[in-house]
Amino acid sequence: MDTYRLPMFPLGTPLVPGALLPLQIFEQRYQLMMSDVLAASEPEFGVVLIERGHEVGGGDIRSMVGTVARIVDSQLLADGRRMVIALGTRRMRVDEWLADVEYPVAMVSDWPDDPHENVEAAELVRMFDHLIEVSRLVERLGGPIPRFDSVELSDDPTFASFQLVALAPIGPADRQRMLNCDGPVRRIQLLEESLGDVEAACQFRLQED
Questions:
Q1: pLDDT tens digit string along 3-56?
Q2: How many Å apart are CA 188 and CA 178, to the nearest integer?
Q3: Taking a C-beta distance cutoff of 8 angstroms, is the pair 62, 38 a contact?
Q4: 118 phi/psi in degrees, rounded to 5
């Protein structure tokens, strides 16, 4: 895979391909980064999970696997903040972190799924149904209200697996593990395990109540 230079935005949660990422930019270095990205021919930047540390101020430990995000909407507010909506487009590996000058930058290479892996459509639908059931349990315990009415799973198993990961009521570490998988088969296996853990925890709490 070809390596290329990419501005990077480390965050406390991973982005997966196909998911939307709303951002509120107030830190000066990321204000500058977004201005440079918007001025480029391809308005793209990389998103990686901060494994340790904080988003603001640097000094963090960053994942070496992330997602390329493309800006689809941007608005500069009167108070100087920039509101950005970006779409995860493809997975990438960080080959080398470059020294921060004005903002984080890395040399990266695209990392597509194994093209030989496949997941049956019926298995994806079954996992989607399970995901909805678990999300409703999470809602009963005060979690976010699930919105699945407009979701239509892709016919492409890779994209569909990322759709499920994006929708699942799981933590950032589990989501990152699924982003790191070579293909959709292992990704769906890990998702099923994580959903099972969340379901068991919810049932336990509901029994206590």
A1: 999 999 999 999 999 999 999 999 999 999 999 999 999 999 999 999 876 554
A2: 8
A3: no
A4: -145, 150
